[in-house]
Amino acid sequence: MTPWEVALAQADVTSHMILYTQAPIVKKIRVRGVLPAPRRSPAVRVAVGRRKATVGELGAIYEIPLFQQDEVLLPWEAVSRVRHEASGLRSYSSDQVDTVLDTPLIRLLEEVPSEERLEDGAHTLLTTLSCPFPSYEAQEKAPSLLVGFLYLGEGRMRLYVRHQDDPDVVACDVRLAEAGPAVIAEVFSRSQERELFEKPGDDPHCAAVVDLTH
Known about the structure:
The structure is a single chain. With 214 residues, this protein is α+β, with helices and mostly antiparallel strands. The protein is 28% helix and 29% strand. It has six helices and eleven strands. Strand 6 (97-100) and strand 7 (103-107) form a beta hairpin. It is globular.
């Protein structure tokens, strides 16, 4: 798969996981981030935790392969995987477990039956009618994509961006209280200004960070 095909799949999962930042994905657990896997790997990482959990307080980060037997993972299959894993205690082999961002990283290898709930279907129906998702063809031709996000502390969020002419992910940090039209308009454009790039520190999911919190 090409790097842009990976980015398209990551963006698709990201757009569908946004719902579960506002409502639990299972029990009292919410999605607190969607991360593009490092080193251009064809996988997506979903961070979960309590309603206000930020980096350092997350319960787990699940890494899910985006392609299996040349089939692209459907967004609701990713939702089902996270629901299944977060719904109770699971046992994992040592090679499935690691640590990233001070959080247990669990690489999901086995497939589980996926179930799209009625409310999931309703959400797809309603959002498609009220705010239609771009078609795959439109996304494929888009110059830039949002491929992930992560709640940081102190009211900040990290947005992960991919540009079609650059295989690396660039993150933009924004302050949610100030995330109005001006900041939204800056995310894709400022993330291409290399003079603004800062090192990502302990975040392996991006090659650089642009600070838009000023």
